[in-house]
Design goal:
alpha+beta, Heat Shock Protein 90, Ribosomal Protein S5, domain 2, formyl-coa transferase, domain 3, 3 domains, eight-stranded mixed beta sheet, five-stranded mixed beta sheet
């Protein structure tokens, strides 16, 4: 078959296959055009999930007759002044969208400039243009797209239900609204519930818009990002580690005002939260990157949904640093949703009130159910064995037993308050000026030890303490071989061991931070990790995992009874340690119930 030139209509339909994937693609292209036109208010109306109607109305600068006619031609654009693709500063620039849409739908464009006495309208029906003709309208542009893919049934049958397509449009408009806080967005139609996001400007505009679109709950449980590194500016909000979702749909990425999907940014966020969230949980983030347009290629995808950074490492580093600094500044703060979950557990299911019955006579065993509670006070006789090692409790013993003699109101000024009791030998009950706190002593101290480990390792090898008599740990021969191979690298973590026969290793020194920890369990855990990673080279790469295993063995164990001064020392240390609001496994270390929440449980209201 000889080579031939394809007809213009077929070329446009082929291009439409790349640019116009679904109704949401049409909305994205048209709204981006409105934003580029300087619109301050954009109204999006849809019907039948966008398959029946997509209508975009804006108050931008509009088009005159010449621009209106040229706008529906292929590769016609007003957004490249020098034919230079290395300096893209607009959202739309390829010049394909309107021509492609007009080849697979009924397209109508009406526009008016500020200087014109009236507007003009042009129609394109499946590639055939008519007009322009006069039309009465205000300044701006109105674009209507009807019966999308009606003449291309093969494409139409692959579209999803009206509800699914309407949802995809909502997601697109949400992202565009998040990227442009100064623009008023209205989304309505017969196939949806209307949304209205008024423009916000000035200080806090970005946070206010994210509150409008994602919800105030996210804004309350997020930290602000604001840093610059290697020519990369990073802004936005990042959710606290205890504020997560089951999927990544609540992660939003913007580069120079463009909503994108990029593996570099996804990987950077995952790395930034690696210490703080469960592997199957996803943090909520809205990340805004500003970078020299010459350092990023936005022309690698027809729909401009993907991009490529010239220096991906610099971008990754800037994002990790921005999130890390923001989370560190948040300190021990945990998300309020943890308390809401607790309140939900208290209030559901609802039980009918029992019928009044005579008060039972007092029995000696009536207090048996409360045997797991320990009162905290000046006369408390709490004790436990074995005692904390001096190194493991370094920093926890600063407020000594004199705390019991101090006035309670002084301690209640602290964010985590003062310890009132220990429950089930694992949970500290504390009170501050605003409410009640429940602290998981093991999870909290686990995070404290982990952060100290990281700090020591950053400044050099972890300090170790020698065992009076080397501890011999019996292990399978293959585990002994892995530990022997990794011995030199493990010394950086303060763990010194050597082979002791074919099926044992002798531990000579252990990290000082761990005190008298479960050395046998620690060595076995490290051996299991080496077996999982399959390579000695992975020891350095898995540094955090090794430290986490060690921290778990060096922390206050569940089941230990603590004195009041030890509980308060733990609370003070949490307040001074970044990320102490969640343990190294991503679980919250404490729950705070405000006074009003507790009153609500008992039906009180003021």
């Amino acid at each position: 078959m000889p080579i031939r030139q394809l007809p213009e209509d077929l070329i446009n339909r082929i291009a439409a296959g790349e640019v116009v994937e679904r109704p949401a693609s049409v909305v994205k292209e048209l709204v981006e055009n409105a934003i580029d036109a300087g619109a301050s208010r954009i109204v999006v109306t849809t019907a039948a999930g966008g398959k029946g109607l997509v209508r975009i109305e804006d108050d931008g600068h509009g088009m005159d007759r010449a621009d209106l006619v040229l706008s529906v031609e292929r590769h016609a654009t007003s957004k490249l002044s020098e034919d230079e693709l290395d300096d893209i500063r607009t959202l739309g620039f390829r010049g394909e969208a309107l021509a492609s849409i007009g080849s697979v739908a009924e397209l109508s464009i009406a526009s008016r400039t500020a200087e014109a006495e009236s507007g003009l309208r042009i129609d394109v029906r499946n590639g055939v243009r008519a007009g322009p003709v006069p039309q009465a309208m205000n300044r701006g542009t109105i674009v209507e797209v009807k019966n999308l893919f009606a003449k291309v049934p093969a494409r139409l049958k692959f579209l999803k239900s009206d509800r699914a397509e309407a949802g995809a449009i909502t997601d697109v408009v949400k992202r565009l609204a998040m990227a442009n806080p100064s623009v008023h967005f209205v989304l309505n139609g017969s196939d949806r519930t209307a949304s209205n996001w008024p423009a916000v400007t000035g200080t806090g505009a970005l946070q206010a818009r994210l509150g409008q679109v994602i919800g105030d709950d996210f804004a309350r449980n997020a930290v602000t990002l604001a840093t610059s590194r290697h020519g990369v500016d990073v802004a936005g909000l990042a959710g606290l580690p205890t504020y997560t979702r089951a999927n990544s749909l609540s992660q939003f990425y913007f580069v120079n005002g463009r909503s994108v999907k990029d593996k570099v940014l996804v990987g950077a966020v995952r790395a930034a939260y690696a210490d703080y969230v469960f592997r199957d949980r996803f943090p909520v983030v809205a990340l805004y990157i500003a970078i020299d347009p010459g350092e990023v290629d936005v022309n690698v995808h027809p729909a401009k949904a993907e991009l490529r950074f010239r220096d991906a490492g610099a971008v990754r580093s800037a994002v990790i640093r921005a999130i890390g600094e923001a989370l560190a500044a948040a300190g021990f703060k945990a998300s309020g949703t943890v308390a809401e979950d607790v309140l939900g557990a208290f209030t559901a299911p609802a039980y009918a009130a029992p019928s009044p019955t005579p008060a039972p006579a007092y029995r000696a065993d009536a207090m048996a159910p409360f045997a797991g509670y320990e009162r905290v006070g000046a006369g408390s006789g709490n004790s436990f064995a074995p005692d904390f090692g001096q190194a493991a409790m370094d920093g926890l013993n600063e407020p000594s037993a004199r705390v019991e003699a101090e006035a309670a109101p002084a301690l209640m000024d602290y964010p985590l308050g003062t310890a009132r009791a220990q429950m089930f030998d694992n949970f500290i009950i504390a009170q501050n000026g605003e409410g009640l706190l429940l602290v998981d002593q093991h999870a909290a101290h686990e995070r404290l030890v982990y952060e100290r480990f990281k700090a020591q390792l950053a400044s050099g090898p972890v300090a170790s303490q020698a065992q009076l008599i080397p501890l011999v740990v019996e292990l399978p021969e293959e585990d002994c071989a892995r530990l022997e191979e990794a011995a030199e690298e493990l010394e950086r973590f303060g763990l010194y061991l050597e082979r002791f026969g074919p099926r044992a290793v002798a531990v000579r020194e252990t990290p000082a931070l761990l005190g008298n920890s479960d050395i046998d369990g620690l060595v076995r855990d490290v051996a299991d990790g080496l077996a999982e990673w399959e390579s000695i080279a992975a020891v350095s790469d898995r540094m955090e995992a090794i430290i986490a295993r060690m921290a778990c063995h060096g922390s206050v164990r569940s089941g230990r009874r603590l004195r009041v001064d030890e509980m308060n020392a733990l609370l003070r240390d949490m307040e001074a340690t970044p990320h102490s609001g969640q343990c190294i496994h991503g679980r919250p270390t404490y729950v705070e119930l405000k006074k009003k929440d507790i009153e609500r449980l008992f039906g009180r209201s003021r």
